[in-house]
Amino acid sequence: MIPITRPWMDEREEEAARRVIRSGWITQGPEVTRFEAAFSATVQSEHACAVSSCTAALHLALLAVGVREGDHVLTVSHSFIATANAIRYCGAIPVFVDIERSTYNIDPTKLEDSITPRTRAILCVHQMGMPCDMGAIGEVAARRGLAVIEDAACAVGSAILRGDEWQPVGRPHGDIACFSFHPRKVITTGEGGMLTTARDEYYKAFRRWRQHSMSVPDTVRHGSPEVVFEAYTERGFNYRMTDLSAAVGCVQLERLAEIVSKRRVLAERYRQLLSDAEELELPQEPAWARTNWQSYCARLPARADQKWVMQHLLDHGIATRRGIMCSHLEPAWSGREWIAGAGGLSESEQAQRQCVLLPLYPGLTESEQEQVALHLKEAVAAG
Ligand SMILES: *Cc1c(COP(=O)(O)O)cnc(C)c1O
Q: How far apart are CA 299 and CA 83, in angstroms?
């Protein structure tokens, strides 16, 4: 069986987890601090704040930029449902902007006409690791006074060309970037998330809110020679990452460059193996983007039956996933308040219907990729 993904972990992660268990301090503590420092060095951000998931990170980011009850947030429906749900957590209303056919990312030319008097922020998604056009998005945001949050759940290790410099996703290119360490992503801590920003006040708010807004952290009270009573200064959350997760994350981060370069080799090999399948549309990087290929997405011809093609592959021992979901088509969002952006959502809906994600992970062999390509081409020809 060829799975869709497989986390890359060995004795080094095992040893890191063992070290934490033996230390007697399991939740947010010194390992989280170490992971944050390593992460901000990797993505060249001023600050990094670890949290329990990317969903939690998105929630805190929206609160930090001032998204409140009844506000509108420009985003995509074509994303994992957590993107839209984070907006709902704030009582705000998503304006779902359509995607570009070629990058599967928010179409910057549709932003301006989707803005309403209640729009406060843009929540863009670097879908499947492919960076958004942050230059174009930033221009609209600056002109219209909107905050920009990047859902970079899938995009650790991706980069954007600004001027003549390749800058890591997460520097950040908007006001705040949010990452995920779920096992489906490029590096993993089991569950986990990270916020990066250059703004001191956002960073301070994240650190308070993730830990119930307590005035003196437990780590400080624990080490104090005097009795200290903490206060709870405002509404907070339990969005802490554990030290167990963070210790594993430090090792994973050391592997990031190697993981991304392996994924790029694998993606290039798919491109070659599938280049003679004229009916398949293969993903391409814009000249200014370098993706980590968190997912490799092939678009089937309109006549093909997506489910049948996926079943054919599964019957040959190959796991695939359908293209990225559209949140507005799910029961969780039917009858809820959302707004379609300018021009509707036809590209988003087509992408969900026509795309198939192929297995891609370090350790996927050349012959396994050949099997995937063979059976995919077979299925497209037949179905
Ligand atoms: C995975 C994912 C999330 C959610 O990440 P969690 O860490 O599982 O909360 C959010 N947005 C996108 C685009 C994702 O792919």
A: 23
